[in-house]
Amino acid sequence: SLDGTALLRFFNSRITGWEVVSCPDPIAVACMTAGSHVIALTHYYVESSMPQTYRVAVLFHESRHTESEAGYYPHGNCPTPFTDASGAPVKSIFTGNALAGPLSCDQAYQGAYGITVILLRNLQLYCSSCNEKVKLDADILATDQLVRITDAVANAKLKADR
Fold this sequence. Notes:
With 162 residues, this protein is α+β, with helices and mostly antiparallel strands. It contains 6 helices and 5 strands; from the N terminus they run αβββααββααα. The strands form 2 sheets. The chain has a 3-stranded mixed beta sheet with strand order 1-3-2. The radius of gyration is 15 Å and the shape is globular. The two termini are 12 Å apart.
């Protein structure tokens, strides 16, 4: 089963608080400043009706950016154009904005999007106290976030992690 105590310890060892402010990227849901342990939450996070599962995933995603020994797990560029199998632009599930271009993807499977996928798949598959809505939301967002891992080997590794 999913170990909530370990997840809370992971989060609390990295984050000391949060504030509602703008991020340098105007379409970001949240962001971190290198060296900070305070998450900046934007109006997208605060004002949206996103499910609680998504909110938790955003916080864990941002907590990964506090790790200086890994260079703060910076994001990489998404392909341009960045399209799905049907040729439609890949868009943020949070904001609806197209993701092609700068800093919305990762190449590493252990980066911020990668650990988000791992967290969400664990919720979906192993959470014994989660209701079906939480598990469905976790599946939808994990599938969405996996698309942002653009390195084929890293993406395959995350797909195989069960």
